[in-house]
Amino acid sequence: MKKKILCTLLAATMAASLMAGCGNDNKTPSNSGNDNNNESNGSQQEITDYGEGNITIWVADNVTEFTKTKAEEFLGSDPAYSGYTVTVEAVGEGDAAKNVLTDVEGAADIFGFAQDQIARLVSAGALQPVTGDYAAWVEAQNDAGAMGAAKVGDMAYAFPLTSDNGYFLYYDKSVVTDPTSLEKIVEDCEAAGKNFYMEVNSGWYQPAFFFATGCELTYDTDNDGNFTACNTDYASDKGLVALKEIIEMCSSKSFQNGSSIDNGTNIGAIIDGTWDSGVAKSTFGENYACAKLPSFEGSDGQKYQMSGFGGFKLLGIKPQTEAGKLQLCMKLAQYLSGTEVQVARYQEVGWGPSNLEAQADSAVAADEALSALAEQLLNTIPQGNYPDEYWQLATSLADDIIAGTINGSMSDDELMEVLKNFQDTCISYAK
User: Fold this and answer.
1) What integer pLDDT is reported at residue 1 of this predicted model?
2) b/e map 63-99, b = 16+ CB within 10 Å
3) Which of 17, 86, 373, 408 is the most buried if burial means most Cβ atoms within 10 Å?
4) Of 80, 137, 34, 328, nearest to 15 (Cα)?
5) Which tens digit of pLDDT belongs to each residue from 52-67?
6) Do 131 and 40 have their domain in common?
7) Domain check: are 175 and 306 in the same one?
8) Structural domain for 196, as ranges
């Protein structure tokens, strides 16, 4: 029954001419029958009566007041929206799926969430698909990484808010002469008596090597968040190349395991995130520089661009029982994720925009850390759901490398056995 209601509403809403509520960046062309949902190709009639009520929004605590201000500005921009008030509540992106899935009907109408929760929310019918001109607008407005994070299959289910969670290279440009080469970075740090930091015993940073060589490690989940399948090929020739590179890097006298510049000493270069940009600027001073992750030359002689996970914040809409409210939620979500608001949000709290025009804003473009991350995110995959045990297993693998238990003197067969044990254990978490 829920699915039938959702499809009916989608037909009534998405077949309408989709018009932006406020701001030049949110102007949307009228629908010309190119809706992505085959069930929504009925007669087209613009909704002019949105009804009345309250729209509840869940966002992170540090943008609660900002979001309330912007949402009220939007509702005040057109008399047609005057029947609505807005309530904004602090619910972190990491908790969104749990809270929504506990009670979909009682959840917020619009809610921010991290991209690793989208599959569960879609499977449970807790997200309204973003179709028609809205889908075209989202596709045109946002970078490829954020757009990929907002989709399940070929269907969009959310409006991207940020492209700012990931890792890249901070370095001292008086030490590092070539930030594009991992080997050269390590060599320069060794020569200068400086340290090179990467938290390789973290399941978040470690895939930078394995994904670089083309390996896969993802999990499928059911509606309840249970892990039903593990998709991985670490125990392969490409996995062997990645493992050997980790071993080689960890064997350098300049290597230090870590990712917090606050806790580092004598740093020549570090793989870290935007959250440490202020400390990095203070640490490196006039020699402060950023870049995407470097490439490395594998044991097979091939060059590989380091990859890893990317993280994105998204704004979703739960299925509605009133067509007018559904369209107004769509318009409001579009506005809150548009150029003007993304730039303002960056200025207010430093969130890195996913919107292409916002990324080109002079202040955003001048942010070296965000620019480096944006370039790196083109080489990453959005982080999905992973079992708690995976993170512990990844830590153990690298701890053994750092301790020398797994080392470069081992044969390919022995290293492949390490990878096979790792892979089999990952697979076991989904059984």
Assistant:
1) 38
2) bbebbbebbeebbeeeeebebbebebeebebeebbeb
3) 373
4) 34
5) 999 999 999 999 999 9
6) yes
7) yes
8) 168-310+387-428
For residues 277 and 412, membership in a common domain is answered with: yes
Residues 368 and 395 in one domain: no
Q: How far is Cα of residue 415 from the mean position of the Cα atoms in its chain?
A: 32
Share the mean pLDDT of the chain.
89
Let me know if residue 98 belongs to a domain.
yes
What is the spatial distance between Cα 217 and Cα 204, in angstroms, rounded to a whole number?
A: 12
- The rounded radius of gyration (Å) of the Cα atoms in the chain is 23
User: Amino acid identity, residue 212?
Assistant: A
Q: Residues 168-200: pLDDT tens digits? A: 999 999 999 999 999 999 999 999 999 999 999
- Dist CA 41 CA 400 (whole Å): 58
Q: Are 118 and 12 in contact (CB under 8 A)?
A: no
Residues 289 and 302: beta-carbon distance below 8 Å: no
Which of 345, 374, 403 terminates a domain? The answer is 374
Q: Is residue 134 part of a domain?
A: yes
pLDDT tier, 100 (very low <50, low <70, confident <90, very high otherwise)? very high
Token readout for 250 is: 């960890």
Number of domains in the chain: 2
* Residue 256 and residue 149 share a domain: no
CA distances from 84 to 51, 81, 223 (A): 8, 6, 32
- pLDDT score of 22 more than 80: no
- Residue 141's identity, in one-letter code, is Q
Rounded (to 5) percent helix, strand, coil in the chain? 45, 20, 35
Contact 235, 420 (CB under 8 A): yes
- Within a domain: residue 214? yes
Band (pLDDT 50/70/90 cuts) for residue 95 is confident
Q: Which two tokens stand for residue 367?
A: 């942010």
Residues 6+ apart with CB under 8 A from 63: 345, 348, 349, 351
- The helix (H) or strand (E) run that includes residue 367 is none
Residue pLDDT, tens place only, 131-152: 999 999 999 999 988 998 999 8
In a shared domain, residues 267 and 355? no
Q: Looking at the structure, tell me whether residues 291 and 265 fall in a common domain.
A: yes
CATH classification of the domain holding 254: 3.40.190.10
Q: Cα–Cα distance between 337 and 345 in angstroms, integer?
A: 10
Q: What is the pLDDT of residues 278-306, one digit of tens each?
A: 999 999 999 999 999 999 999 999 999 99
Whose structure tokens read 């025009």? 357
pTM, two decimals, is 0.80
**381 belongs to a structural domain:** no
399 in the same domain as 348: no
